[in-house]
Design a protein that fits this description.
3 helices
């Protein structure tokens, strides 16, 4: 398949509304707000411990920070409130196919992930 055909196919696929079934939609680009496990003593429900925090003996790492970042081990949320985590393996290395909603790449200089259509890393300005 030629590159132009692949790009056309990706655009057409992106334009289609994805659905798990006829009543549930996949809505892309949602603002997830803060998702973390650092509030152990501040909530009334039982929380798991972040394995990255546990390994490092800290309570700093968050799955998602509103308007800022998504953890490199964050693999999504399952209803109702289960966070899918791939620690110690980066999500970009363990997710495949339709488990990722857009092409991603990892910067060889700083190691951070971003959309693959960038011609430079938005974090360290490495040029591809």
């Amino acid at each position: 398949m030629e590159i132009s055909s692949i790009i056309t196919w990706q655009v057409k696929a992106a334009d289609k509304e994805e659905r798990m079934n006829d009543k549930i939609r996949h809505l892309k680009g949602g603002n997830l707000g803060d998702i973390d496990f650092i509030s152990q003593d501040k909530v009334s429900w039982k929380q798991s411990v972040c394995p990255w925090n546990e390994d490092e003996g800290v309570n700093d790492h968050k799955c998602a920070v509103k308007y800022i970042s998504i953890c490199k081990y964050f693999c999504g949320v399952k209803y109702l409130d289960t966070v899918l985590c791939s620690y110690p393996y980066e999500n970009i290395d363990v997710l495949s196919g339709n488990e990722i909603d857009r092409p991603m790449k990892k910067c060889p200089l700083c190691g951070r992930q971003h959309d693959s259509d960038n011609t430079s890393c938005p974090y360290c300005d490495y040029i591809y």
